[in-house]
Structure formats: structure tokens, C-alpha cells
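Reopening closed ticket. The problem is back. First fold of the pair:
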Amino acid sequence: MPLVSPAFRPPACLRGGHVQTLYPFLLRPPVPVAYRRERLELPDGDFIDLDWSLAAGPGGARAARVALVIHGLEGHSRRKYVCGMVRALNGAGWDVCAMNHRGCSGEPNRLARTYHSGETGDVHAALTRALAAGGYARAALVGFSMGGNQVAKYLGEAPERVPPQVCAGVGVSAPLDLAASVRALERGAARLYQAYLMRSLKEKMRAKASARPGLLSGCPQGAGLDALRTFRQFDDAYTAPLNGFADAADYYARNGAARVLEGVGLPLLVLNAADDPFLGPECYPRALARDSAVLHLETPATGGHVGFSAARSAATYAETRAVAFLEIHG
């Protein structure tokens, strides 16, 4: 019965979905991590960049286990939430490979296709490379937001593809039902988060079109791109056609991890705060977790979206909880 009793109880001044979402984003100090970058060439001619941070070992030797950490929408490996998790995992004896999705490492990707919330082929490629790089005996996956959905989808959609070294996964603030998440972000104050991310997505498409003229000729440009205001509009105009989906609705239906969670065969922790402004009710699979031997669902009353902060500079609850979960199952 892996419905986990939440242990996160921040001080009263840090309670509430919007406070928890914004506080670490705005006020958490940078978390220093010394990465070593590796470019991974993909079979389709594109690339992703992997950033490595190794746990301290005798003579600089690699650890026996590795964690692949995956950022959220419009994120990258240097976001504070990623670096905080990397630091926590390194401290617990995990080498870490922080994956940057296509176009998210500071350079437009080569192909018209983009990263998206259900992209697990690139996750598999990054994980396979990480395992080969160190000959690791054990591996885990940790994803935030979009990356959390990818971790859950990867573990559930084709379990036979998951390497045998993988022992567990963690999804933090995971939008397991994409349509429900989009609906949540179209309501009330959550629209401000959508507007912020939309500015970043549109700027990325402008940079890509400028770097590789003609590559996005079938998508709205100029005033047409400027006019897009919502994720649904952007996904109809860009995400769906560039990645082989009929439209936004088809993209959402095929890429939310909720539809494949019953296929997960390894311990998976989903840490979704009840007051997360990015998530709809369908992103909390309580009934499935209640009957599952491997799906551990924890829904603290507060925590916001990729928040879970109790103090300005301390590790977040998501970091300590992920490490604790992986110590048991990793």
C-alpha cells in the first residue's frame, strides 16, 4: 500500500502552493556544482549534452552507482533545483549524470524536432551512455516536473527496455496527465507561470529559426509566433507537428505517464504536492498507488511546484526524500 504519509511540514510563512513554487526559484542561493560536460551524438544526427558530477571517491574513482537527473520544461542542468539534487546525491555516494534535453544546453539542436514531455528515447540514450561510461552496477532516475513524467513513462511504457542495472526512479512534481496539467495552467494565477514559460519557449524557437534558416518553415513565425499565448496553442503549432503528433490533444493523450503506470515494475516515488499549481486532479493516482507494490505516491499538503523548501539555503525536502528513497531501493 505505497500511499506514503507525508513528512514535509514547512514553517507557516512558507506554506501555500505559490509561496513554495516561487520561494526557492527567487530566493534560494545558487548551488555550486562543478560539472564535466559530455556531448552525446544521437542516432538521428542530433545531440544532447550531459553534465557529470562524480561523488568523491578514493583517487577520483567512480562510485558503484549512478543517477540520471532530468530537468523540467525549459530547464537545464544548472537550475538550482537540479544542482541541489546533484549535490544531495553526490553526498550520498551517487555519481550523477545531469541530462540536458535537445536545445536546452545553450545551443539550438540541429533537427526540427524538439524535446517534449513524453520523450523517452533520449532518456534511454542518456541512461545507456551513463551506464557505459562508468560500468555502474546500479542506476536510478530522478526527474523534475516534465522530467518526472518522463521517468514514470520510461519505466512503465516498455519495461523490457529498461536496463537491468536500474533499481528505482523518483518523479518530483510530475504532471502525469498532460491534459490535466495544461488545464490547471489555464486557470487563475497559474496563468502567470504559463506566460513565463511561453516567453522562454518562443524565444527558443526564434533562436532556432535564426540559427538554422528554413528548419521551422512549416510553423508560425514572426507575428504568428508572437500571437501564441498558451501551451495548448504552442503544442498545436510546434510540439505536435515537429514530433509526429496529430495535434496538441493527441500529444497529451499519448505522452502522459498516467496511462502506463500499471506497467512500472520497479520502485517509483512520485512526490506531488497537493497544492501544486501546475497539476490537475488526474496527476495524483491515489487508487493505483493504493493497490500497487511499487508505486509510492506522496502528496504533502504543501510544496508547490518543484518547491518543498523549509529554509533559504538548506536542502529541500525533495532532495532529502529522494536520497532516502534511493538508499532503501538503490
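Second fold of the pair, where the issue appears:
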Amino acid sequence: MKKKITGLFWLILLVAFDQITKILAKTKLEGTEGFDVIKGVFKFHYHENRGMAFGLLQNKIWLFVLFTLIVLIGIVFVYVKLPETKRYQPIHWILIFLSAGAIGNFIDRVFRNYVVDFLYFELIDFPIFNVADSYVTVSCILLVLLFLFYYKDEDLEFLSKQSK
């Protein structure tokens, strides 16, 4: 139980960090040409995203809100059943970061009707993204790698067992 409370603390901290970076981006970058961190490579550049990755599904806020709620319910279900052992510690942290990313963008969609993006890799013209997007992307990659190379089917049996 102590690990679950610690997880909640980190979740709140990560969401707060995401929201603070977005507030700073909005107040310092909106209406400007942006700020070069490494000229021609990486810059802070304000962008309002009304869709999802790569500009897909523009102005479908209700769809993102519904999808996020479903994903968060699934994450909470797994997190509550997750054994508090060292073996499952990676999943514990991944679910915290994944939730923080989902909640960070959810807050933007509900209260702004768009997501604030501000991180731009100009060198490769990568779509502008934010801290929450980074949480989600890295978490998903790590989760896939763990399931491919670390966990076996029997390691996930806790999901189908009845809670005691």
C-alpha cells in the first residue's frame, strides 16, 4: 500500500511538471517565433494541437476525452492489482508515467479545448510535442520492450486472479 501512495505522489508531481511547462510555454512563447535551444536542431516553439499525433482527428475533443477515460480506468485496474514486488516495479513506474501523460493532455483538452505543444526537433521536422507526450511515448516503448523481453505470460496472471 505504501508503494501505491508513493505512486500517487509521483503522479501528481509529474502532472504538475507537465502543466507548469505548458503554462510557461503559453506565457513565454505564444505569439513569438520560438526560442532556439540548438539552432537548426531543437527549439521551443508554441503550438496549439486540436488533434492527436501528426495532426490526426482534428477537433474531436470528445473522442480523446472518452478514450483517455477508458485508458485511465484500465491503468487503475492494472495498478491496483499489480503485486508490490521488485519484479513488477518497472510496470509500476511505467503506469505512473503513462497516467501522468494521459492526465496532462486530458487537462488541456478539457480546460483549453487544445493541447499545448512546444518541443520541436527542427532538424528532422518532427511534429511539435510536449512533456506529457514524452511520458506516454517513452512509457509505451518501455512497456512493449518489457513484454517482449522480460515478462512471460505467467507473470501477468495477477490480472485474472480475484482480489483477496
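Update: turned out to be a display glitch only; the data is intact. The CA atoms of residues 51 and 57 lie 5 Å apart. The longest helix spans residues 2-29. Please close again.
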